[in-house]
Amino acid sequence: MHQYLFFIGDFPIRAYGLILSLSIILATGTAYYFAKQDGRWHQHVPDMGIYCGIAGIIGARLWDVFFFDWGYYHNHLLEIPFVWQGGMAIQGGVFLGAIVGYLYTKRHQIDTWAFADIVAAPAIILGQALGRAANLLNGDAFGHPTGGNFGILYPSTTLAHQVYGTQPLWPAEIWESQLDIVIFVLLLLFRTTNHAKGQVFILYAVLYSTARFFLEYLRGDYGTLLLGLKSAQLTSLAVILAGICLFIWVGKYGTPIQESKKTNKR
């Protein structure tokens, strides 16, 4: 586990920033492959990757600042832009990235739901899986103590060590990365079915939120907010309930994917 890969003079090259950047680049490449394979909108993927990637970083940072760490940052406002310190909430990244993606598709007259199914859902969850490696190397998004002699021991330079010292911690970020890969495969399998337009993206939101809800019981980097639940769990519950209802409604009344391909081929 190395927070700093090397230095250029006094400037550190952090593993967190490098892995985070790679996750965005590789997710964009995956999205391009799926769009090219489908035959629609692949020429828009690089631009979309840049815009949504930047929006995702901003959204993830602000979500973490205001929902997870406001107790610290309200006294350290100048440190809010210091994303290299860690502290990025994926839910905020997806939220703002989705808004920017929606605006982009509307501006370029792209079918938003079809684009989200073909490109966004599989690529986003793959990027999330890779991004959790950045959290591991940086020592954030960590678990709480296991209470035994098993778990991850973080270096003294990490936030995890500052909070829990030498106590072994649950590998929350590692397990989330692994579950993200499982969700990625499940989405690919679901895409082979005769689903309705929009259901792949909705399924992504439901599956990830379900995994995140239970994994939060292992997280030790912030406390509960309401009814013994953490802010990420409350957000996940809202997405799960809304997503299940929307998934059923779209499946019953939405446009079949095969029909969408015929009417939106361009």
Range of helix content: 55-70%
Helix and strand sequence: EEHHHHHHHHHH
- Strand % is under 5%
Distance between the termini: 46 Å
Q: Specify Rg, calculated over alpha carbons.
A: 19 Å
Shape: globular
Which segments are poorly predicted (pLDDT under 50) over 5 or more consecutive residues? none
The computed structural class is: mainly alpha
What's the count of strands? 2
Report strand order across the widest sheet.
1-2
Tally of separate domains: 1
Largest sheet: 2 strands, antiparallel
Q: Average pLDDT, to the nearest integer?
A: 88
Specify the number of helices.
Answer: 10
Seen as an oligomer or otherwise, the chain set is single chain
Protein name: Phosphatidylglycerol--prolipoprotein diacylglyceryl transferase
Transmembrane segments: 15-35, 47-63, 83-105, 202-220, 232-251
InterPro entries: Lgt
Keywords: Cell membrane, Lipoprotein, Membrane, Transferase, Transmembrane, Transmembrane helix
